[in-house]
Amino acid sequence: MPPADGDRVGPGLRRAAGYAWRLLLLGAVVYAVLVLLGKLVLPVIAVFVALVITAVLRPVADLLDRRLPRGLAVAASVLGALLLLAGLLAFIGETVARDWTGLGDEFRGGLDRIERWLEGAPFHLQPNSISDLQAKITSFVSSHRSTLVTTAVGEATRVVEIVTGAALALFCSIFFIYSGDGMWRWAEHQLPAGAQATWDAVGRAAWRTFAGYTRGIMIVAATNAALVGIALAVLGVPLALPLTVLEFFATLVPLIGSPVAMAIAAVVALAAKGPVTALIVLALIVVIGQIEGHLLHPLVMSWAVRLHPVVVALSVTAGGILAGVIGAVVSVPVVSVVWAVAVELRRHRAGRG
Q1: What is the mean pLDDT of the chain?
Q2: What is the largest distance, in Å, between two alpha-carbon atoms of the chain?
Q3: Half-sphere exposure in the Cβ direction for 169 (13 Å, CA)
Q4: pLDDT digits (tens, 9 = 90+) for 299-349
Q5: For the whole model, what pTM was predicted?
Q6: Rounded to whole angstroms, how far apart are CA atoms 159 and 162?
Q7: So what's the pLDDT on residue 169?
Q8: How far apart are CA 71 and CA 69, in angstroms?
């Protein structure tokens, strides 16, 4: 009797076909999830920020819980963080407002120094070239004034969305800090009894990784910001405090955030203090990058996240392409959590086998 058509297909091809349709199905599910998340950007980002706040403030609330009722401990930790943030922003605003007149004069003189520097070696730009560039910028702003105003109005709408998202994130974080364990146990009990142990192990591994990454990147960002702030203060660069805060938040984007913030500080130093100070600030990019890459990340992050630098770089790049700055920020913790979940599932299967 002749073999059936299916028997003529080799086992390798059948195995490849099996993997192919599974990958296609997985890709379709991932695409559908991404489309859904794209429609729900505001609540998704709010929940992500709430998880970040929970990872940072949960240890503080647990520490206060030893002496205070749980509700008071959560309220004290959240209000303390809000007051600290408000005080920092107020101090930055007061510093900028106090030095604004002097900064304007200093920047005008700095721009003149930049023009003279560009006219000399090694650039040898003609003065009329610089004047033409200034005229083109002025003409562009004048001709596109209505567009700029429309964009500003659109950004005002974006500000309302940001405020709404921040309020939602704060609301969610309060409940996560207060009763996150209870919420997780309730969700776990909705699953079939046979899957509860697996999902409990996977969920706790995911949270350990996410919380460890969040606390670690905060420590790295604070250390980078402190180093930058001290260096800018010693060099006498204006706006040292706002640039320090910018360095802190920029470091939350791995690999590329800190150099971009330092480049902005170098431009400010060039305009205010001249090329020598700007070159020193640029040298800080290399120094701080070495400290971050060879000391802080191995020391602080290795116990929470075990990703190769190439994986981190590709994750940041892919996240930036897919979702801009937000994607660059969330890409590494998301990849870290996915990897931790995969490792935990493999370990759980091995333990059952």
Answers
A1: 79
A2: 97
A3: 21
A4: 666 656 667 777 777 887 888 887 777 887 888 888 888 888 888 888 877
A5: 0.75
A6: 5
A7: 92
A8: 6
Q: Cβ distance 255 to 312 under 8 Å?
A: yes
Lookup result for tokens 């205010």: 272
Say whether pLDDT at 154 is over 60: no
pLDDT at 6 over 60: no
Using CB atoms within 10 Å of the CB of residue 313, give its burial: 0 to 12 exposed, 13 to 18 middle, 19+ buried: middle
Report domain extents, the chain: 39-188, 191-353
Q: Which of 16-20, 115-119, 142-146, 334-338 has the lowest mean pLDDT?
A: 142-146
CB under 8 Å to 198, separation ≥6 — which residues? 345, 348
